[in-house]
Amino acid sequence: MRIAQVAPLVESVPPRLYGGTERVIAGLVSELTALGHEVTLYASGDSQTRARLIPMVEASLWRSDTNTDAATFHVVELARVTREAADYDIVHSHLDVLGLPFGRRSPTPFIHTLHGRLDVPELQTVFGELADVPVVSISDSQRSTLPNANWVRTVHNGISLEQVPFGGGRGSYLAFLGRISPEKGLLEAIEVANRAGLPLKIAARMPLTAIDNAWVRADWDYYNEQIKPLLCNPGIEFLGELDDHDKYEMLSEAAALVFPINWPEPFGLAMIEALACGTPVIARAMASTPEIVRHGQTGFLCNDVDQMTAACSRISEIDRRVCRQEAEQRFSARSMALGYLDAYRMVREGRSLLDQASAVLNGRIKVQPTPGGAPALPPRAIGPMASRHSASHDVDPRAIPTQR
To answer: Among candidates 277, 270, 269, 402, which has minimal Cα distance to 330?
Structure first.
């Protein structure tokens, strides 16, 4: 299959340091290529990939010293992809809402993965107009605020596991991995560590400096007023952004990852990175976390800081080998790629049926009557929603990861 992957330009693929969406795209492109598909990646010029790379900017925009309007570059990227769409069998956009209208103008079907939060009121208007556009969720919980969108399926994120070390948690410390913002819960992670009497290593991205908007200013206020005064406390170690080697070394020797989110997390890549290292996850039980963490088996799902603190005394109950096995079976890049291949086939099949129906209605195809006199119809329901309710006929169901 000829597949175009359309990546955000704000960070390279894969990211040098922090960057969940770009890390997921890197793993997906690598596995699709390994499976024999012809993949083209539209991304920043500093990306590294085995696929054919079409650089849309010289370097990732977030690494630029200028206050760049990323939307402008993404519109140009989408315009070029649409112009070249006939070269592909499927176009996979990772640009969230911005990419949604472009598939309607394309001779090749588009599919869109929504990587961000969807509980934004404006999205109700967007999907009121674009309800037919095929979209993929990265967790079942992500769908809850947009139940009428054309959900093809849920495909959980995955990561490449070959370079991820399995660790014994010998460091006897807690780990926090994410970015410094109120929704990620770093303040609560510090409180849990202090109350449990355990050291805490913080691998976190500072708020952005190249972008000036209300969210970034709020993150800086959060850091300066609530986080920075606590970083000098005994046992609290701020490591900043880490590359993959240092990040996995930190996670593999941690007793547990603390994941006290305060927002409807669409997925939470840090959780599966920890599990891949054999490290259990202590998470707030909301949004996507119950889909990722098995309570009492790969970590603990908690309602508040009190329960997370209590869970720290139960870390030894978790078998770290089970955590690693869970990552291998459910959250590998290969499992993710197989899930997307299923989604691609479903969307292409749906587009084919629509094209047949349009040709019949416009007289380009003459429908031959059946022996009983009724016109012969395609074997499956016609319509943009049809393929999301049944599996593709040409996919071995044993090759598709079970959705949870």
So the answer is: 402
Q: Which residues contact 172 (CB under 8 A, 6 or more apart)?
A: 198, 199, 255
Q: Give the helix/strand (H/E) hosting 55.
A: strand 52-57
Task: Identify the CA nearest to 257 among candidates 173, 341, 326, 331.
Answer: 173
Query: What is d(CA 102, CA 176) in angstroms, rounded to the nearest whole number?
Result: 38
| CA dihedral over 357, 361, 364, 367, signed as positive or negative | positive
Q: How many CB atoms sit inside 10 A of residue 156's CB?
A: 21
Distance CA 140, CA 288 (A): 7
**Cβ count within 10 A of residue 306:** 11
Residue-by-residue DSSP string for 302-345: ESSHHHHHHHGGGGGGS-HHHHHHHHHHHSBHHHHHHHHHHHHH
Which residue, among 168, 160, 159, 158, has the nearest Cα to 251 in the 3D structure? 168
Distance, CA of 382 to CA of 350 (rounded, Å): 7
Tell which residue, 346, 395, 401, has the closest CA to residue 134: 346
- The pLDDT averaged over each successive group of 10 residues in the chain (404 residues) is 97 89 97 98 96 96 73 96 98 96 94 94 94 97 94 97 94 96 97 98 89 86 97 96 95 98 96 98 98 98 98 98 98 98 95 52 49 39 30 31 35
Number of helical (H) and strand (E) elements in the chain, helices listed first? 11, 13
Indicate the length of the chain as a whole number: 404
Alpha carbon of 131 to those of 150, 219, 309, 357: distances in Å? 6, 33, 43, 19
Element (H, E) at 301: strand 299-302
What are the CA-CA distances from residue 333 to residues 46, 134, 156, 329, 357 (Å)? 22, 22, 10, 10, 36
Per-residue pLDDT, 373: 44
Distance, in Å, from the CA atom of 294 to the CA atom of 16, rounded to the nearest integer, reads 30
The model's pTM = 0.85
CA dist., res. 286 & res. 261, Å (int): 8
Task: Please give the helix or strand (H or E) that residue 220 lies within, else none.
Answer: helix 214-222
Return the number of other C-beta atoms located less than 10 Å from residue 17's C-beta: 17
